[in-house]
Amino acid sequence: MIDPELEPDMLGFEPHLFFENSGLWTTVAKLAALIERPESGTRLYVETLSTTLAIELLQLQRGAISGAPHLRGGLSGWQKRVACQYIEDNLALDISLAELARLAHLSPAYFSRAFRRSFGVPPYRYQQERRIARAKTLLADLKRPMLEIALACGFGYASNFTATFRKITGTTPTQFRHSLE
Fold first, then answer.
1. What is the rounded CA–CA span in Å between residue 51 and residue 31?
2. Who contacts 169 (Cβ-Cβ below 8 Å, separation ≥6)?
3. How far, CA to CA in Å, does 9 sit from each of 2, 5, 54?
4. Which of 80, 103, 117, 142 could form a disulfide with 74 if both were Cys (CB 3.0 to 4.6 A apart)?
5. Closest CA to 92 of 146, 42, 49
6. Which pLDDT value is given to residue 18?
7. Rounded to a whole number, what is the largest CA-CA distance in the chain?
8. Are 165 and 135 in contact (CB under 8 A)?
C-alpha cells in the first residue's frame, strides 16, 4: 500500500541526470543490500527505508536542500505512548510502518518523520533497541538457549541477533552473558 502523501502518479517526477545526493544514494545502497540479503532486515526496516527513499526523491524533485529535513514537530504524548507500547508488546513480531502510523492516526511518511523527531531515531532503530533491551533481561537466565532468546526478541536468525546486539551494545550476546556470571 502506497502512502497517499507519496502517490507517484500525482507527483510528476522529472528525470534527473548526473546529480549528487549522498543521502539518497546511501538509502538506495541499504535497500539494495536488503534485496540481496532479505533475511538481514525486518518489514519495518524495509518500509522505513522505502519511505525515506520516497521522501528523499520528493525533496530532490522539489529542489529541497539535501540534508535539511522539513520537520515541524514530533508525535504528541498519546501518540508516543501508543506507538511505544505497541512496539514493546509486539517485539517478536514483524511490525509494519503502516500499522504504527495507523495507531497514531498519521500517514506512514509523516509518522516516520515525527517519530524520528520525537525519539531521535527512526521507528526501526527504536524497535531494535527495545529488542536488545529485552534480550539483555532474558540473557540473565543462564539456562535459556541463545536461539530461544533471539526468537523471543523477534530475530529470525541467530546471526541477525548477534550482529544487532553487537552493533547496539558493542559486545556479543555470549560475551554479555559471561559478564553477568
1. 11
2. 132, 136, 176
3. 11, 11, 13
4. 117
5. 42
6. 53
7. 60
8. yes
Structure confidence at residue 163 (pLDDT) = 94
pLDDT of residue 19: 61
Mean pLDDT by 10 residues, the chain (181 residues): 55 61 79 80 83 80 52 83 96 94 95 94 94 94 94 92 94 92 78
Query: Could you tell me the three cell numbers for 113?
Result: 518523520
- Please state, in angstroms and as integers, the Cα–Cα distance from residue 22 to each residue in 49, 69, 112, 126, following that order: 15, 14, 20, 24
pTM of the model: 0.63
Say which amino acid occupies 181: E
Whole-number pLDDT of residue 27 = 84
